[in-house]
Amino acid sequence: MEVKPHCCGIVVAAGNSTRMALGFSKQFVLLCGIPAIVHTLLAFDAAARINSVVVVCREEDISELATCIKSYRIKKVTKLIPGGDTRQQSVAAGIAAAPPETEYFAIHDGARALATPGEIDRAVEDAFRFGASSLAVPVKDTIKQVDENGVVISTPERSVLWAVQTPQVFERGIYLAAMRQAEKDGADYTDDCQLAEKAGAKVHLCRGEYTNLKLTTKDDIALAEVILKNREKVK
To answer: Cα–Cα distance between 66 and 80 in angstroms, integer?
Structure first.
């Protein structure tokens, strides 16, 4: 039987949830009675191509997250660590905490609670082939580029535009080289694909699903629950 490379999921859940305005971390928002972060971690637990998981979160959330991991019997989480001041710093902390045998990193936003095990595996397999891969979907709307006054200055061709999602998966050497380059440049990125691209890596996009939404505003909570309930109906 073919032995696949060790892939560690780096689940980044260290944001302040300011746009959600809940008064607590959006990672613990209940979606159909289960905390959002648990949906995320259960998907990674069930993904065949994920061998281990490191969760990066706010220091004040560590205790509650540890309780969630134990309560829902999540098995693949090897470490639960505090994040940095920026997303890039949080990812770097997660990378440093990954098992030494890790050959690929699957970096995922904890707030993308609807990613399925199949989507995760698809992105990892794509990275095994191309070295760097991200789930993404074709843009449905017409996109406008505007100036500082909100006046349209161009309309990019929609057929070549894709909205990237996570997980974004990278071969170890590619990502570590990109991290070193960003540090050398004094750059700070909120998107890991961009970090890799700036270092010269070619990132392949792997077709995802529109249901892999990110919990950003309160409206997303209701939509996420509808998606989850629909999934239950078709099981």
So the answer is: 8
